[in-house]
Amino acid sequence: MDNVIAETNGEREKLLEEARNEAVFLRSKLEKSLNAMQRTSSMNIVQKTQEEVFAVARKTLKDLSSMSLEEQSVNILYQSFKGSKNEEKKKLTKAFQACSDSILVQTAF
Asked: In sequence order, what are the residues at sequence separation of 6 or more whose Cβ sits closer than 8 angstroms to the Cβ of residue 81?
């Protein structure tokens, strides 16, 4: 009877240890998953905030000017080229002439 009780207690301790190990593993996995979800959520919030700020800035600038933000950006770029030194103009001209493709100007918008 003592052997059966000892064996049962040993088996119970073994099962409890396995359950504890499984609980620790699952808790660790859950914490990693929650941290990943928090990072993703934070990045999404930052991206949405940036998009909203850009949208508000674009609308405000458009309301304040007679041109769209893109048109104004191109005008500023043109004025900076126009005001550049002759050497810089020659370099830009050569670069544009060397390029057989069209020129693409990109902005954050």
From this structure: 89, 92
pLDDT digits (tens, 9 = 90+) for 27-69: 999 999 999 999 999 999 999 999 999 999 888 877 777 667 6
Q: For residue 106, what are the CA distances in angstroms to 2, 19, 109? A: 83, 58, 8
Closest listed residue to residue 57, CA positions, set 69, 67, 66: 69
H-assigned helices in 1-109: 2-64, 69-82, 86-98
| Cα torsion through 92, 94, 97, 101, rounded to 10 | -60
Specify the pTM. Answer: 0.42
Length of the chain: 109
